[in-house]
Amino acid sequence: MNDKKQVQVVSMLVDNNAGVLARVSSLFSRKGFNIDSLTVSATDNESLSRITITTQGDKNVLSQILNQTAKLYEVRRVVALNPESSIQRELLLVKIKADENMRSVVREAAEIYKASVVDLSVDSMVVELTGKPSKIDGFLAVIEQYDILEMCRTGVTALERGGAVLGQALESAEAEA
Q1: Distances in whole angstroms, Cα of residue 27 to Cα of each of 17, 31, 67
Q2: Are 148 and 158 in contact (CB under 8 A)?
Q3: What is the pLDDT of residue 25?
Q4: Rg of the chain over CA atoms, in angstroms?
Q5: Which of 129, 130, 156 is CA-nearest to residue 54?
Q6: Domains within the chain, CATH numbers bracketed
Q7: Which residue has the higher pLDDT, 171 or 90?
Q8: Are 17 and 64 a contacting pair, CB within 8 Å?
Q9: Distance of alpha carbon 77 from its chain centroid, rounded?
Q10: Least packed by Cβ within 10 Å: which of 8, 74, 106, 132?
Q11: What is the distance, to the nearest Å, from the Cα of residue 36 to the centroid of all Cα atoms in its chain?
Q12: Cβ atoms of residues 54 and 8 within 8 Å
């Protein structure tokens, strides 16, 4: 049995009410689970929000997270997303010190990763990159040799591939409606 710590992406549908995010993050804190990244977004249903949390742990920790989170009154569904059967993306904005001599070097690195230069000033550039977290990490490893002035990562947002809707077949979700 593999009990190594692994990155886990947990996706949940919650009631779109004030304080839900505080209750979910408080549960993680009380139980000693660290949140590596957290995104909250609207869904196609105004009464629900999607929370995506990236954390680390073995299978036991993941099981505890899923069980404890599912007990919260406002959590409608919670699943651990399998990286092979889900689409996981992240957005990076990074401001790099770049005078006239450095711009072409930064642009070349950005092009290789299919990133876009979204702002250019006399002494800096802002590059935007969307992709898998490993792609973001790879790009940052390449540009870390340059003078990074600031950066911001959104954290992972994810959906299951195919007809699955938060762990249940599409037909099951339609039958509930």
Answers
A1: 17, 6, 11
A2: no
A3: 93
A4: 19
A5: 156
A6: 6-81 (3.30.70.260), 87-157 (3.30.70.1150)
A7: 90
A8: no
A9: 18
A10: 132
A11: 9
A12: yes
Specify which residues 48 forms β-bridges with. 15
Q: What angle do CA 157, 5, 54 make, to 5 degrees?
A: 15
Residues in the chain: 177
Note if the pTM is more than 0.90: no
Token representation of residue 119: 């702002």
Residues 6+ apart with CB under 8 A from 41: 49, 50, 52, 157
Task: Identify which of 87, 123, 78, 73 has the alpha carbon closest to the alpha carbon of residue 103.
Answer: 123
- Which pLDDT tens digit goes with each residue over 153-174? 999 999 988 887 775 543 354 4
For residue 121 the two structure tokens come to 């000033």
pLDDT at 132: 94
Phi/psi of residue 21, each to 5°? -60, -40
SS (H, E, C) the chain: CCCCCEEEEEEEEEECCCCHHHHHHHHHHHHCCCCCEEEEEECCCCCEEEEEEEEEECHHHHHHHHHHHHCCCCEEEEEEECHHHEEEEEEEEEEEECCCCCHHHHHHHHHHCCCEEEEECCCEEEEEEEECHHHHHHHHHHHCCCCEEEEEECCCEEEECCCCECCECHHHHHHHC
